[in-house]
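sorry for the late reply, my laptop died twice this morning and i had to redo everyting from scratch. anyway the thing you sent over, i finally got around to it. pasting the sequence first so we're on the same page, its 575 residues, then the predicted structure underneath. double check i copied it right bc i was rushing
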Amino acid sequence: METQGNKRRKTIFSFFKPREPTSTSEEHSPSNIDISNCNDQYSSKSQRVEIDVDSLERDPSIRIPIWQHPVNQRDEIRRAYIKMGPYQPIMPVYPRTESGQQYRRFQSSWFKQFSWLEYSPSKDAAFCFPCFLFENKKAHYPTFTTEGFKSWKRVNDGSRCSFLLHTGGPTSPHNNAVNSIDALMNLTQHIDKVMNVQTSEEVQKNRLRLMATIESIRWLSLQACAFRGHDESLSSNNCGNFIEMIRLIGRMNGSIDDVVLEKAPKNAKYTSPMIQKEILHIMANKVRNKIREEIGDAKFCILVDEAKDTSNKEQMAIVLRFVDVAGFLRERFFAIVHVTDTTALTLKKEISDVLDRNNLQISNMRGQGYDGASNMSGAWNGLQALFLRDCPYAYYVHCFAHRLQLALVVAAERETSIWLFFSKLTSIVNLVSASPKRHTELRSAQAIEIAHMVATGERETGRGCNQIGSLHRAGTTRWSSHFDSICSLIDMYKAVITVLESMVNEGSSNSLRGEASGSLIVMRSFDFIFILYVMHKIMGITDLLCRALQHKSLDILNAMDLVSSTKALLQTLRE
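ok and here's the structure:
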């Protein structure tokens, strides 16, 4: 038997039938993987692999462990071994082993007592057949799988019998392996078979649930609405936009209403936050792939800006600017990335990762657009300088709209009268709009003023004209908001005067009446009114430039022409 085991010893390459060699002109190294057969490799996972039973080594001490075989072939090898059964050679006399002052040997009667037992003639050792089939790289019991058991005196030793101890309780590794054998041979219970048994009705129901989920997510994301609600329990009157949207779709379609939410099985509702995020990621990837198809092999520019979101996380937005195949200039929002800090190296790494994942080469970059922060525009260690080292054609352009805003802010701060004007304007807007009562008085006064001006012919009538608005506050980050604030004050000048006079006469406190009286004096002063109309004229010109500079289709030549035209108009106004 020992000679027979050595004769049938084979390598791993003898476990399967060899394929006919195909002629090729090149030798492929292990690292040079041929990706042309990927579909064949994937399909082979779902097909049964024909095993040559005669080529499988039976001797437990010689055969190759299961975990060393290819993953997609292990189950078929296990089935082949299970069909052959454990290796239990019956020998007239088994070799003797010295144990202390006695000699002991393996007994063939143990095969009947322990059906899982195997014997290796070449090593004179016992092995466990189920544990061999389902052992991992890190074996639980190496004695019964790789090393072999030889302590014959510890067999039939009552409760201390090594074979009984190895068998263990119902959840021992040995019994788990035995149960795995039963499950492996029961093909009707395998997941691929069970899934094929599903009826077409169940598939249709799952599709309806998934369709309702996808359409709800698509609509909410398009409208930039929140998904989750504060209380999504069954007793809640409002479970959030996502759940309520699915209920709305169900009310409009009875077939969907019969299979979604409470009427769906708990393991296939498709409404969990994880499912929502997965579908959103799929949609985002599809949009990015579509943008990538639009870009093709064309050159592109990147526009990047970072800001903190409501959760106080630093987020970086990446926009791609390119010319499509039809010759139209496009700007596409491509990705938003969370960054741990805003150093130039970190930003470059994150941007490069996004570009690499979408097969966009930095060598095809032809422009960079950022704000004027030192980490972005630094000539030596800024983000633009780092990209210029990788691609010398990726020229940096400071955002023209941002530069215009910086110029206007600096010019306004250096002129004392203009700075005082905007300070007083902000105080007046805050005073009149702070109280809901005063806000209501302002709207009423404006309605009366508009009705009077329409009756006297001072205002034109038409759709969208003569609407009752409110005073706009000037923002700190957008200079165009100052122009909106000036326009609203000019349009509601008389209504604001009326509200301030009412506050002077009927104010609830002396401080309020004093503040209203001071604002009233300022608004009636010549300096304030003169600067109000002068800034309205000047900012009307600069606002047009600011809006034009933010058009997606604007190129650098037209931008320079717009800047020159604006400078000429301002010079004409000065003269």
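The CA atoms of residues 166 and 473 lie 80 Å apart.
thats about all i looked at so far, will dig more tmrw
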